Amino acid sequence: MNNLIRRISSLQRPSDDDERHPSKIKSMCGLNANLRDYQLFGVEWLVLANETKGQHGCILGDEMGLGKTVQTLMFLMYAKNHGSGNHPYLVLAPLSVLNNWESELKRWTPSLDLFVYMGNKDVRGKKRESIERQLIQCHQTGKIQDALLMSF
Predict the structure, then answer these.
(1) CA distances (Å), 24 to each of 14, 40, 74, 93, 133, in order?
(2) Are residues 95 and 37 in the same domain?
(3) Among 20, 32, 70, 146, who pairs with 112 as Cys (CB 3.0-4.6 Å)?
């Protein structure tokens, strides 16, 4: 844990002309939303963590209603438009809010290729088969979904 804290502390905030600066991230992601400063900082955190070697992902955690969903959507669009090669991104949410996540993703980021893994046992089985077929196609075409949405 101390090692992780040390690595995070050593990250330098991007300069104004750096493409990872929050103002540049917002323009590069193509999401038509006005974010507060703390929300842009959250997006910047996701971008920096994603681009840090040896980092295996990260999460946003704070009080409900502070905009984690829109921050995550902005990051996903940034990653897609910026060409970050770590696709697909896994979005995990409680089953009780999965439908909300799906509608927000479709509303705010319609250009994202999204795979939603939700449903009863039979539906999930068919979706697993679909994922397997897509993985085979991905090796042939190089195209894969941008994000996989599922519950834990």
Answers:
(1) 10, 10, 12, 28, 37
(2) no
(3) 146
CB 35 within 8 A of CB 67: yes
Instruction: Indicate whether 74 and 109 sit together in one domain.
Output: no
CB 148 within 8 A of CB 89: yes
pLDDT in tens, 75-105: 888 888 776 655 678 888 888 988 988 898 8
pLDDT tens readout for residues 21-58: 555 666 666 666 777 888 888 888 888 777 776 666 67
Do both 81 and 94 map to the same domain?
no
The reply to whether 9 and 58 lie within a common domain is yes
Instruction: Quote the DSSP letter at residue 12.
Output: P
Say whether both 69 and 12 belong to one domain: yes
Question: Model confidence over 107-140: pLDDT tens digits?
Answer: 888 888 888 888 888 888 888 888 777 777 766 6
**Same structural domain for residues 50 and 12?**
yes
Work out how many domains the chain is built from and give that number: 2
